[in-house]
Design brief:
Elements (H helix, E strand, L loop, with lengths): L7 H8 L8 E2 L5 H11 L11 E7 L2 H16 L5 H8 L7 E8 L8 H21 L3 E5 L2 H4 L1 H6 L6 E12 L21
Antiparallel strand pairs: 1-5, 2-3, 3-5, 4-5
């Protein structure tokens, strides 16, 4: 962040980027830092004050256990799955020091549309990345097959109206992330004409 910028927060936002989970190393947020991070993450738009999200911490040896569960589930689904793919999924949660599963809670038939409930949970994921970076950590928001597999939902104890909005992988950057090409605003903005 440029301390001389007249808008340092805007400068911070314009430099934000994700770091691949494989490049995240210790330390991750400790218990006190995680409390601050999550308290910040939940300050998102929440139409109807539904709190349509909750968190599951996946840390320590639990990361490898969940990875084994995922690999076993994928192999059961397709016994011909190649070993390198299974190995990748087996190690999915063991790269970063800490993984937070953001669980979206969808109340069907509520006056608040489901899309708004899901949007609030997604906002929590992004706010968590911003808070982590502001605290000196790095992170990546991932989904992958684990986010949608019934066996992982069962292993994590999800209720029938819950879904995984994202796995937020958190740690310390082991290297600088190069900037990637961003879209140009021009074609993304149009004016509505009545």
């Amino acid at each position: 962040m440029n301390p001389d910028s007249p808008l340092p927060f805007l400068d911070f936002l314009q430099q934000r980027r994700s770091l691949p989970a494989r490049l995240l190393v210790e330390p991750g947020p400790d218990a006190e830092q995680l409390e601050i991070l999550l308290t910040t993450a939940i300050r998102v738009p929440d139409h109807g004050r539904m709190t349509p999200w909750r968190f599951i911490r996946i840390a320590g040896s639990a990361r490898a256990v969940l990875g084994e569960c995922l690999a076993a589930a994928l192999e059961r689904d397709d016994p011909d799955t190649l070993a390198p793919i299974l190995d990748k999924e087996r190690g999915r949660f063991s790269q970063a020091p800490l993984v937070i599963a953001v669980i979206g809670i969808v109340t069907v038939g509520h006056r608040i549309p489901e899309v708004e409930q899901r949007s609030s949970a997604a906002a929590v994921c992004f706010q968590m990345l911003l808070a982590a970076e502001a605290m000196g950590f790095a992170g990546q928001w991932l989904t992958g097959p684990a986010a949608y597999h019934a066996d992982i939902h069962a292993a994590l104890g999800l209720a029938g109206n819950e879904e995984i909005t994202g796995f937020i992988h958190l740690g310390t950057a082991s290297q600088q992330v190069p900037e990637r090409v961003r879209p140009q605003l021009g074609p993304l903005l149009s004016d509505w004409q009545p």
